[in-house]
Design goal:
Low-confidence stretches: none
Mean pLDDT: 96
Radius of gyration: 16 Å
Shape: globular
Helix content: 25-40%
Strand order of the largest sheet: 3-2-1-4-5-7-6
Strand content: 15-25%
Distance between the termini: 40 Å
Largest sheet: 7 strands, mixed
Order of helices and strands: HHHEHEHEHEHEHEE
Structural class: alpha/beta
Number of helices: 8
Amino acid sequence: METPENQYILSHSTPEEEALRWITRQTHIRTHYPRMLSGPVQGRLLRMLTELTGAKRVLDIGTFTGYSAVCLALGLSEGGHVDTLENNDELEDLIREGFDRAGVTGRISLHIGNALDLLDRLSGEDPYDLVFIDADKREYPEYYAKVFPLVRPGGLILADDVLWDGKPYAETVPEDAQTRGICRFNELVAADPRVETVLLPLRHGLSLIRKK
């Protein structure tokens, strides 16, 4: 159920496209974890950051049902392209139908498989202007290490769920693998002199990291 604050935010933000509403509905009907969706506010921010940076090459790690990939594709400069990585092949039909409904099929390449393995295969391509990380929280530090060389100087790395329901700053930090992965990632980025970063309390926490 939406809180009054969320309802107010949504009512004063640009509405999402029908294709994105369709992805949201189908995600609730056909998956067990609809809360993993980026949602309209974060999705609009992803699109705006893509537009503002003039990004032409974008990488999306963790497609899920395709919401974030569609938002990123809608913000691309002319001739731009999104590579999006998803480990769960059972979602492929839903993902591709969402791309088709949004009219972005020709702007997105869906790669199915383990993200760490797929990143190795993408390492020979031209540098990315923007990367969005929203996949296995245990592997965030490894994603960061593999992604960093793939991003151009001045490019952006965005990481979702970095506040992880308050667990990283709890009085007693949980010891589960996901929380440990998020905590290691946050500390790694904060101490990295090669970047400047700001952590926003948007949704479950979003880090904006600019490569110097």
